[in-house]
Design a protein that fits this description.
Structural class of chain A: mainly alpha
CATH topology of chain A: Methane Monooxygenase Hydroxylase, Chain G, domain 1
Shape of chain A: flat
Largest sheet of chain A: none
Order of helices and strands of chain B: HHHHHHHHHH
Oligomer: heterotrimer
Radius of gyration of chain B: 21 Å
Strand content of chain B: under 5%
Number of domains of chain A: 1
Chains: A mainly alpha (about 140), B mainly alpha (about 350), C mainly alpha (about 120)
Radius of gyration of chain A: 27 Å
CATH superfamily of chain A: NADH:ubiquinone/plastoquinone oxidoreductase, chain 3
């Protein structure tokens, strides 16, 4: 597998070409963080982010593992036949219960995070979806 | 060490270099032409001419662009992690180019005929996420950070759909080797029995390569350029090359999985110097690259929460249902592959 | 002043044409059941062909296995013959080397029994 050595070398050659051929005159405006119209606020560049991304990554870990665990079954379906398939089905039933729980807990609902808790506080003076007796 | 031993080693080294170059140079050329094809085809969709100045019919445009970008100044933001800032684009390029090591372009025309070739491809497509994640983190810019978060979440979500679609194909073939997969499709191209699977497979591929209905990393109106906002000149070229290389690679893999790879009716197979098989595979790959650009010209971009919900609430249950259905059919009619 | 003679504005001969109230919607394609049915049909045909292909592969594999099984006696006989030849040659070499040693019995078994043992050494 010579390609494993060759491809990084190729990338290195391109970088070296850039170092030798391109000008390099940094100034303060160039090297500051990109921002549109005003100076970048220090400390805002690595903001806290929503827990949602982390939860999606965790769920991905479980489900990708689940699919990869089924690859041996797929390769040996002729040999294990109906018994192995039954085991696979049981595996899937357990995971489907987990999947339903996960959807029910709102793990992947990006919007409407805590609808039940916020429902008492009506932010709008008039509920736009309720018939207020005008129509 | 005697001289003949040295010569033998040198010979095998030379052979290895030629082996790799004979795959990589056409790949890099095809990636370059993919960019011009995209611009020309988008222009055709919108009734424009597109680039037509550099070279005949604008064919040399990508080379002019690449040369210009190599001669540009590399700006490294002062607040960035310098090493990771360089490592991220390099890893993106390397991981997307390494995927070509297992693609068979004809009977036996492959750098390494791995028994677990499909697993190798899946592993490399998972590793591709690291380039994006590292780029977003190291640039230390708000837009790059948000862009990398978004596209990481989208890519790993759609990787589930991709690997379940591939699992279904493996169910039909019983082998993880690309050449075996192609040989089994001599009976029928997998797009016929797996038409619904092909549809959600292609949706997942579009999201994996961050193409248009799902290109939230590049939502120019909100996140300037996504995770490579801060990257310029050669690091930017690396991201660009990596992205387009993975588009061509995934088109090729789709052609192998669903259109029978280099399979053609047997009367056309000959032993002459012209290898028709590689040309056939190239033609089938072109069909899917056309699809990629066509979708970009047609479809509007999804919102981020729609993207995640489409994956987890719509596509994943369908994929799981097909993972149950397909082996059921295989076992009921006793046609599971040996 | 009126230059033209007075004329009542009347509908054209044969009356007005009918009002076009029909909506010219673009063709929406076949309905859901048609798509479902045709996709199922295509998939069924695909699985039929795939099944025939897989059965053929299985048959080829079976043929290969049986041909190997039938070849096994021939291969075993060949191996035994080769082993015997090599063993005899080895004994002859041993006799040649040890001819000066009195009481040396070339090719004598190291075991104290007359039971046949297949040689565990590969004679070169």
């Amino acid at each position: 597998m010579f390609i494993f050595i060759f491809v990084p070398i190729l990338a290195g050659i391109l970088l070296a070409l850039n170092v030798f051929l391109a000008p390099h005159k940094p100034d303060e405006a160039k090297v500051s963080a990109y921002e549109c119209g005003f100076l970048a606020l220090p400390g805002q560049t690595r903001n806290t982010f929503q827990i949602h991304f982390m939860i999606v990554a965790l769920l991905f870990l479980i489900f990708d593992l689940e699919i990869l665990l089924l690859f041996p079954l797929a390769v040996s379906l002729y040999q294990v036949s109906i018994f192995g398939f039954t085991i696979g089905i049981i595996f899937f039933i357990v995971l489907t219960i987990g999947f339903v729980l996960e959807i029910g807990s709102g793990a992947i609902a990006l919007t409407n995070f805590n609808t039940e808790k916020q429902s008492n506080i009506n932010l709008l003076p008039v509920d736009p979806y309720k018939n207020n007796g005008y129509s | 060490m005697n001289i003949s031993n040295l010569l033998t080693n040198l010979n095998s080294l030379l052979f290895n270099i030629l082996d790799v170059l004979s795959i990589l140079l056409p790949v890099l050329l095809s990636v370059a032409f993919m960019t011009i094809i995209e611009r020309k085809q988008l222009a055709a969709h919108q009734r424009r001419i597109g680039p037509n100045t550099v070279g005949y019919y604008g064919v040399l445009q990508p080379f002019a662009d690449a040369l210009k970008l190599i001669l540009k100044e590399t700006i490294i933001p002062s607040q960035s992690n310098k090493i990771i800032f360089y490592l991220a684009p390099v890893s993106t390029l390397v991981f997307s180019l390494l995927g070509w090591a297992v693609i068979p372009f004809g009977q036996g025309i492959v750098i390494s005929d791995l028994t677990l070739g499909v697993l190798y491809t899946l592993a490399l497509s998972s590793l591709g996420v690291y380039g994006i994640l590292l780029a977003g983190w190291s640039a230390n810019s708000k837009y790059a950070f948000l862009g990398s978060l978004r596209s990481t979440a989208a890519m790993i979500s759609y990787e589930l759909i991709l690997s379940s679609a591939i699992l279904i194909i493996i169910l039909l073939t019983g082998s993880l080797n690309y050449i075996t997969i192609i040989e089994i499709q001599q009976a029928i191209w997998f797009i016929v029995p797996l038409l619904p699977v092909f549809i959600f497979y292609f949706i997942a591929v579009l999201a994996e390569t961050s193409r248009t209905p799902f290109d939230l990393q590049e939502a120019e109106s909100e996140l300037v350029a996504g995770f490579f906002t801060e990257h310029s000149s050669v690091p930017f070229v690396f991201f660009f090359l990596g992205e387009y290389s993975s588009i061509v690679l995934f088109s090729c893999i789709t052609a192998i999985f669903f259109l029978g790879g280099y399979n053609i009716p047997e009367i056309f197979i000959n032993e002459t110097i012209i290898n028709v098989q590689a040309i056939v595979l190239g033609f089938k790959t072109c069909i899917f690259t056309f699809f990629f650009v066509w979708f970009r010209a047609t479809l509007p971009r999804l919102r981020y929460d729609q993207l995640i919900e489409l994956c987890w609430l719509n596509l994943l249950p369908v994929a799981v249902a097909f993972i149950i259905l397909i082996p059921s059919i295989l076992i009921t009619f006793e046609i599971s592959p040996y | 002043m009126l230059s033209a003679p007075y004329r009542q504005d009347m509908p054209p001969a044969g009356g007005f044409e009918a009002i076009k109230y029909k909506r010219n919607l673009p063709l929406r394609g076949p309905g859901a059941y048609v798509i479902l049915g045709s996709v199922t049909g295509i998939c069924a045909y695909g699985f039929y062909r795939l099944g025939k292909g897989n059965l053929e592969r299985r048959e080829l594999e079976r043929e290969k296995v049986w041909s190997r099984i039938h070849l096994v006696p021939v291969l075993m006989a060949e191996r035994d013959r080769d082993n015997y030849r090599r063993e005899q040659a080895s004994i002859a070499r041993e006799r040649e080397i040890m001819k000066d040693v009195a009481g040396w019995e070339a090719g004598k078994s190291v075991y104290n029994s007359s039971k046949y043992h297949e040689s565990e050494i590969v004679f070169a």
